[in-house]
Design goal:
This protein is of the alpha+beta class. The protein has 4 domains: 99 residues, Ribosomal protein S3 C-terminal domain; 79 residues, no CATH class; 106 residues, Signal transduction histidine kinase, dimerisation/phosphotransfer (DHp) domain (Helix Hairpins, Orthogonal Bundle); 143 residues, 2-Layer Sandwich (Heat Shock Protein 90), CATH 3.30.565. Helix content is 49%, strand content 22%. Strands 12-14-15-17-16 form a 5-stranded mixed β-sheet. A 4-stranded antiparallel β-sheet has the order 8-7-10-9, covered by helices on one side. A hairpin with a 5-residue loop joins strand 7 and strand 8. Helix 1 packs antiparallel against helix 5 and helix 8 runs antiparallel to helix 10. The two termini are 59 Å apart. About 2% of the residues have low confidence.
């Protein structure tokens, strides 16, 4: 459900981004259309005006409305002396000028405007029917630049029975969009078109903020999803590790408890107390298992204390070689089928250690090698100016790389082969690493095949 919901949100963000892009594209097209129409309006209102005509009413006392109704017009085509030829609603008609006085010229118009009580007067400009595309193009460029639009385009003007006039801005040949100018000032039966290619870069630029926010939001959702999935997977792994630990510890505790219980039961039921030798043997069995049980409990408590605080160490300069010889001898006695080999040229290499905890760290690593490694375990000590280095290697199958970063985690056991048939809690290497780090050193797996562990301590 989480994945589906996230997918739906991402799809929605994509749709919104596409919608935003289309809206920006349409908005830019509208701005281009507006720029074209404004350019036409400005051209006819300012650039195409060639002359002014002033019409003065010769009928005394006539109301201005009656006077103006006869000469209302859109544009003037010709200017004879006896009439005004006008275009009204795309229809041409001629009005006689017997009751009007017509004066031509801007200077005259300006002079008449200063005379008071002259009567009904109308001023209007005369315009040419043709278009100067260069001037129109100049106005169009001004309008586009004011809106921040850089455009490759072609302007095409056609009028009845005439060849089209064309002016080009830019070298772009693929022009996919067309806009037709809408203006009352354009001559009858004429057409002005703008052919252009929609400025994709400008559309993207204007849409970028929204698209980036949408992309960031989508990435945030995806990141949260992956983070959530990683937490779920980690919790699942932790649950598996804890369940495995509970299963192992239950088995580990049940064995000495059952053995001690059996020995005590034998003492009670089978009159073993009469037989001194049997009594001693059963008591020793019970004692050994209770000691083992106590050792297991201490191990669990040590794990908890290591998690919460640093170990309280009693450091003292100790001969590491003597300690390793002692450990090797113990294992040679108890593990006759295995070969424990100490390789070193020197008999005296000292380091500041807490011998109790440090011996535990070494034995934990060797125990792991005995359980999961081969038949030969090799201990080697080297010394540099700054560090004393102990390596513990075995000739077993090694450790897969996918487990390398996890083997020092608390309760982690490699789920491979018959590993879970071997007794243990998955805390041996965790203990060892914590102890070595408390000594100011490091414990690392430096080789997977074969498995080689390295202890690095500061020199005494």
């Amino acid at each position: 459900m989480i994945v589906l919901a996230t997918f739906a949100v991402i799809c929605l963000q994509i749709l919104l981004s596409i919608k935003s892009y289309k809206e920006k594209r349409a908005a830019i097209s509208n701005e281009i259309r507006s720029s074209l129409n404004n350019a036409v309006e400005t051209y006819y209102m300012k650039d195409a005006i060639e002359e002014f005509v002033t019409v003065i009413d010769n009928v005394p006392g006539r109301k201005f409305k009656s006077f103006a109704e006869d000469i209302r017009f859109d544009s003037v085509k010709h200017f004879p002396l006896d009439s005004i030829n006008i275009v009204e609603g795309h229809k041409t008609k001629t009005i006689a000028v017997s009751s009007y006085q017509i004066i031509k010229g801007r200077i005259a118009a300006d002079s008449i405007a200063k005379i008071k009580n002259i009567g009904n007067t109308i001023y209007f400009p005369l315009r040419k029917e043709s278009i100067k595309l260069e001037q129109l193009n100049f106005r169009l460029k001004e309008g586009l630049e004011s809106k921040g639009i850089s455009l490759n385009y072609v302007v095409v003007f056609t009028i009845q029975d005439s060849l089209p006039k064309v002016i080009r801005n830019g070298t772009e040949k693929t022009l996919t969009d067309t806009i037709e100018a809408q203006s009352v000032y354009l001559p009858e039966k004429s057409n002005l078109q703008l052919l252009f290619k929609n400025p994709v870069q400008l559309v993207w630029k204007r849409s970028m903020n929204g698209i980036l926010l949408s992309a960031l939001f989508s990435l945030l959702i995806i990141s949260c999803l992956f983070y959530l999935l990683s937490i779920i997977r980690l919790q699942k792994q932790n649950n598996e590790i804890k369940n495995d630990f509970v299963s192992n510890i239950t088995h580990e505790f049940k064995t000495p408890i059952a053995t001690a219980s059996s020995a005590l039961e034998a003492l009670i039921k089978y009159n073993a107390l009469v037989d001194t030798e049997k009594t001693q043997r059963y008591v020793l069995i019970a004692q050994e298992n209770l000691i083992k049980l106590n050792h297991l409990a201490d191990k669990i408590l040590d794990t908890a204390s290591m998690e919460n605080s640093r170990l309280m160490l009693h450091l003292k300069a100790e001969n590491i070689m003597l300690l390793l010889q002692k450990i090797s001898l113990k294992y040679k006695t108890n593990e006759a089928a295995k070969t424990i080999r100490l390789v070193n040229a020197s008999n005296e290499l000292f380091a500041d250690i807490d011998i109790f905890y440090f011996e535990n760290a070494i034995t934990n690593i060797i125990d792991n090698a005995l359980k999961y490694g081969g038949n030969v375990i090799e201990l080697k000590v080297t010394s540099t100016a700054q560090n004393l280095i102990i390596t513990i290697a075995d000739n077993g199958a090694g450790i897969d790389k996918i487990h390398s970063s996890k083997i020092f985690e608390k309760f982690y056991r490699i789920p491979q082969g018959n590993v879970h048939n071997v007794k243990g809690f998955g805390i041996g290497l965790y203990h060892s690493k914590k102890i070595i780090e408390s000594h100011g050193g490091n414990l690392n797996l430096i080789s997977n095949h074969p498995a080689i562990f390295e202890i690095c301590l500061p020199n005494a």
